[in-house]
Each structure stands twice: as structure tokens, then as C-alpha cells.
Amino acid sequence: MVTDHISKAPAISPLAVRDRTGSVSIGEVIAVLNGEINGLHIRRAFSTEVAEEITANFTHNPGLKERRDGVPGQYVGASHYRTSAAAYYPESESVRPFVEALFGDFIDPVHGLFDALKRELHKRNIELRLARSARGQANICRAFCWSGAGLFALEPHDDVAQVSNAGDDSEISAVAKNTVVALNFYLRVPEEGGNLRIWSHKPTVVDRKSQGVETTGYPYSLGYLEAIPNHDFQLRAGDIALIDGGFIHAVTAQSTNGRRRLLLNNFLGFARPDLVLWWT
Q: What gap in Å lies between CA 269 and CA 138, rounded to an integer?
């Protein structure tokens, strides 16, 4: 008997994207949470003046650190990536003053979106809150910029693998069964490049194992992705982007002689039908 050893190609997943200009629609945010929209780009969602003020607060922030998780760049805040719940929540508490220092007395887009979404979900008998444990509570966002160079400023990855492997003591692991939404607020972008690219592919556990990224979702090889269609969001300061983090995505190479990419980032998703969690 002859055995067929032909490798299975990555499955193509339909990709529903929306790209528009204007204010944030909470209905669209909920549509991303529900998996009805996989990528949402809102141009000029907040003013460049606000973006510049938060950027200045980031640059001079006493909590500014160099990343040590394999992704080059600087950050203010805490990340659940490659971090146990036992370490993540105490770190979130310790850096909270630095995160709060990113915002002055002005109305900022992160708190504005969080509060508006909380009100709308409450009308639907759904609670929205920051993820927490006995050791503390998540921050509302994390700020970070890139200093890396190469074909991608941030390699192709998915966000579900890390959430799935957050551990039994972390309540965010329940979100991995639903849509893990990555939410970015862009403060500064390079003159050229630095686009958000999303591929029409949601990897399975088997797919991740084939790439050796079953616990991190990072990075997928270019050979694995070469036959999969993709979509680029071309970003500017003041833009907001939400994507279904289960789809593989990356940041394209950016110009080397311009401004480094700087954004505010967080994640959210349904842990239960009546509970949406928000974390970094």
C-alpha cells in the first residue's frame, strides 16, 4: 500500500474588513467582539493633538522600559505575553501610576472607548471590566514602540495561542474560546511602511504545532503564509484598529530614517456570554 505524504495547505478563512473615516461606532466594536467583522480600521478617530500629548508623556515617562520578550522596542505598562498570572497582575499594579501618567486632564480615546462600550454592553446585561485576580487588576492599556528592522517590524503571529496558554489561574484563558480582539490606538507612525497586515487564515492547534508556536503564536514562517491572501491597513496618527487576533497578523517594515511606530494596545473578548474582559 502506498501512503500519501502530501502536506495539508493552510486553510483560507474568509476575512471581513471595514476601513472608514470618522468617530468610533460602538456597534462596530461589538461586531468585532462577536466575530462579524474581523478587521476594523477607523481613520482620524481621535485628534493628532491628543496623539502628540500622549507621545510626549510616553517619551518622558519614568516607567519607560526596554522589551525583553523577544520583540524589540520600548514600553510603558505590563503584558500578559509569556508571563504567568502570578507575575502579570502584581506587575500591572506596580506600573499603574506610569500608565495613568500617559494621560493628562484631556479626554483620551482609550478611556472614552472603554466607558462607552461599558455603557452599551450594560444595556445588554453584559459586564465589561478589567481582568483581575487575587493579586491585582489589569491596566487599561500598554504603550509601546518598535526599534526593530527587517522584512517585518513585527513578525507574523496570532494572539490566541498566548491567551489559550495563560494558565488555569488566569481568567483570560476563557476568552480564547471566543474572539480575542486586539485593539490599537496609533500615536505615531513612520512616513513609509509600518502597515498592519492581516492574513486570511485562523490557525488551529495543529497548525501552530506544525510551526512550533503552540504556546506563543509567534512567529509564523513566510513560507507557511506565501499562498494565503492578506490585507494591509495603512495607518496614520489618530487612527484606531481592531482585529480578530485569531487571524495571523504582522506589522510591515517601516522606513528606517523616520519616526518609530508608537501605539497604545490592549485586548478584550467574551469570557462568558455575560462578561467581556479587557487586559494588556
A: 14
Burial class from Cβ neighbours inside 10 Å (0-12, 13-18, 19+) for residue 197 reads middle
* Cα end-to-end span (Å), the chain: 52
> 76 with 65: CB under 8 angstroms?
yes
- Binned at pLDDT 50, 70 and 90, residue 65 comes out as very high
For residue 191, the model assigns a pLDDT of 80
pTM over 0.85: yes
Q: 88 is written with which cell numbers?
A: 502579570
| 169 CB-side CA count, 13 A | 12
> Residue 190: exposed, middle, or buried by beta-carbon count in 10 A (0-12, 13-18, 19+)?
buried
- Cα(211)–Cα(154) distance, rounded to whole angstroms? 17
Distances in whole angstroms, Cα of residue 263 to Cα of each of 32, 141, 146, 185, 229: 20, 10, 10, 5, 26
What pLDDT was estimated at residue 1?
Answer: 38
Mark out the alpha helices in the chain (DSSP H runs).
Answer: 26-33, 48-59, 85-100, 109-123, 160-164, 205-211, 222-225
Cα(210)–Cα(213) distance, rounded to whole angstroms? 8
Preceding omega of 14 cis (within 30 degrees of 0): no
The vertex-183 CA angle with 177 and 187, nearest 5°, equals: 165
If you average pLDDT over every residue of the chain, what do you get?
A: 92
